[in-house]
TrEMBL record:
The keyword Signal applies. The gene is LOC127565200. This is Protein takeout. It comes from Drosophila albomicans. Keywords: Signal. It comes from the Eukaryota.
Amino acid sequence: MNSQCIVLILCLLVYQAYAVPAETKYLDASEFEKCPEDTNAAGDCIAKIINTLLPRLRHGDPELNIPAYDPFLIDKLSFQYSSGAVNGRISVRNVKLYGIVGIKIQKIDVKRNNNKIQLRIYSHQPKINILGDYKADMHVNQLQLKPKGKFNLTLFDVQSTVNTEGEIYTKDDGKRFLRLTDIEANPKIGDMIIKANGIFPDPELDEIALNVANNYWRDIYGIILPETRKSWVPLLLRLINQALLKVPIDEFTSRSD
Ligand SMILES: *[C@@H]1O[C@H](CO)[C@@H](O)[C@H](O)[C@H]1NC(C)=O
């Protein structure tokens, strides 16, 4: 064996030693009161933890692999839309969502059946602002529209009841975690301001269209929310589950047995 070969092997060994992943870092439970496992009392306790953590993690935590979420950035999202005379596709890009940090969890109802968990989460957000670029390809009756431009949506007083289902599972390191499998939300909005440009080539027509949209946003929202569920549910589940990977539930729970 020549010396070059030995050096190479040594290098590989050193590399191996450093490439061994460090122990995964989890959310530190030490400062929180342990939540009772009894489901009636657990809800309040979980709500308190989330309300404490949300503002603190707004700039993200690289060690926990949690990205900053104020603003929360969405690279691209597409919605297929089809109802009566209107159908088409809208895609949004470079979306910035402000306001997640203002969520207050008011109450959580917990139901548990062995490893299956159901949570009903009541929350309130005073204001959400969503900015970005949009592009659409729509058919309204015989008319084809291809609007493209910037949008700015502001939602006020968002009251949500979120129903989620999840399951408890055990990781290789023996710790137990929660993973959500479904989520359903039907937020009620106090008021909404819609701003956009590029709907029509003519700015005056834009103005008229926006006036209509701002007067009828309740109807528009009522149709669009369920229609777009397929687009935002997976995104939301992925986000929440990514955070839950860092929450070893037993460290936040006091066992009553
Ligand atoms: C978006 O619209 C809201 C509500 O009208 C306004 O307060 C805010 O300044 C706008 N943001 C931008 C970046 O234009």
